[in-house]
Design a protein that fits this description.
alpha/beta; Na+/H+ antiporter like fold; Rossmann fold; 3 domains; 10-stranded mixed sheet; Cation/H_exchanger_TM; membrane; Sodium/hydrogen exchanger; ion transport
Amino acid sequence: MSWLDISEHLPITDPTWIFFLVLTIILFAPMILGRLKIPHIIGMILAGVLIGEYGLNILERDSSFELFGKVGLYYIMFLAGLEMDLEDFKVNRFKVFIFGIFTFSIPMVIGVISSVYILEYSVITSVLLASMYASHTLISYPAVSKYGLSRMRSVSITVGGTAITDTFALIILAVIAGMYRGEIDEYFWFLLFIKVIIVVLLIAILTPRIARWFFRKYEDNIMQFVFVLAVVFLGGGLLELAGLEGILGAFLVGLVLNRLIPRLSPLMNRLEFVGNALFIPYFLIGVGMIIDLRTFFKGGEALKVAIVMTIVATSAKWLAAFFTQKTFKMKKEERSIIFGLSNAQAAATLAAVLVGNKIEVSPGVPLLNDDVLNGTVVMILITCLISSVVTEKTARKIALAGDAVDDNKASEKREEENILIPVANPHTIEDLINMALLIKNEKQKDGLVALHVINDEMASESREVQGQRSLEVAASVGASADVSIQTILRYDVSIVSGIIHTMKEQAATDVVIGLHKKANIVDSFFGVKTLNLLSATSRQIFIVKALMPVNTLRKIIVAVPSRAERESGFTKWVTRLCRMGGQLGCRIHFFANEKTLGYIKGFIDKEYKALRVQYNELEHWDDIIMLTKHVNHDHLFVIVSARRGSISYRHSFEELPTLLSKHFTDTSIAILYPEQYGDPREIITFADPIRQSNRGFCQQVVQWFNKLFKSN
């Protein structure tokens, strides 16, 4: 077949071949350009240029590109809001506001001056053109996310500033468009303000409540994913009805769902996977398809406009990043991240130029002529290339150096962690894995070990099959959160012996187990296995009873005994709880005596200063029953206990089982036994009568004297 015959069938219109070609580009563009050290984002855009109308004309930019392009654009803004560290955002809200003012006002001033005096446009045209420079699209955000820097301070500042400058730019677009359409009257500003406020309140107030109810009611992964997507586009559609662009609605939905979707969770992994694998690349290819490289070679006014627009947009965004860096004494790498993320022009810029090109100031004369339209396309290409290269290069440098500025975890120690999760009950496996994901170091992709122990005396083929199934469930939960879980099925003389031996073999630092379910009225609260495990190891142990999905918890209440700060594992359990609070985005409320609270507050202020924390004095541990008025059904009640013989142990711990069984039956509970140094002692648990403890102590004294006299 000749080239002429092939060209007769171009552009391709068959949906099957369109989708095949797009997927081929998404697959091979990163592979090819990765060898050339070129960011794959650029590859998507250049591939769009190549196959588009102004390239080889292989594909037409049909409705599928408009649909998936809009989905991809919404997805970028949604993920930016979803991955933002809200507590860090609150700490840096002044920086966010200042950067938002810089990145809006500097392009506006330079843009108006250059358009009036260099391009010789009218004031209205110059203002609209300057608003296009002021807005920007987080087109290189996936690169930051890929290197795990989405919670970096400079990233949070840029994302927050994006919402500010895009809002102002879109308001200018709405006002100018309304002026020429005759929609501006004495009620315009009032109605716009009322509509936007109503929509924002609806999204901010109703969305988290409905989402929390839905996640508790329906735990099916597909249903949760579809629900989140529906909410994203509902938010975008509502904000469009209010008169602004839907991308701001998608960003707002990401912010309000931030606390309900932990960063290390199956749902977050699915959202990022689908967006980065399909929707966002589709959007980037669609952006490339509207770019006409022939504009470079036309010369004349079109080339002049393109050069001026590109230089003004790029220099203005660099100046905004520079002034932000100097104002807050930030590092050069942070300035580069801010500039890289904020330099790309795409979404709001396209919306403004297309609207301006359709508005006629007089018959046949558009507000933004074809020279501006072509110049905008060139500006989009160059700014996207600069943005991608700068962001990719800087993010890689920061990731390799390991010096990302994260105010929330500024000095967290990079110690090896191995969390052991013994699994037996199929109904609690997912809750235990999710709890382990909340307390683990999110920068460490492995370190979780799921264990199922079979007693030698009760071994059978059916028990082995059941154990394998339990481990498969644990592995699948971890895989859905993009975390590798090592699974171990072992036979041993007892369940506890199997756990202890595995802890030593895997160098486990923490153990997460489920709370024992009483088999009969004479059974103990914790069960014999848990008590024996506590007696046999000095490692940190979490005993968990989860009555609802952990991501829907609204608050963590922590009861801490006196002298807990003197235990060797004090900073470790505080760190684990702070990680949990950071992942869930909820408040942690500590109850302890004044001295212990001082140590807790001092540690958190130094290591996790952006965390939402509250402190109340609990003068006497016996007053723990008074916490019933603070603990609700959607809270996690954490009791920091202690092994018998430890520094913070109290005899009143003997009453904890009765207290928990009577007053906290409808509450999710985590009982925490901190790590201790030294070999395990002969520990009598608080399930045993106190008199046995005294008798055991007397026997030890007698034995010690007997050994002394025998040696003499």
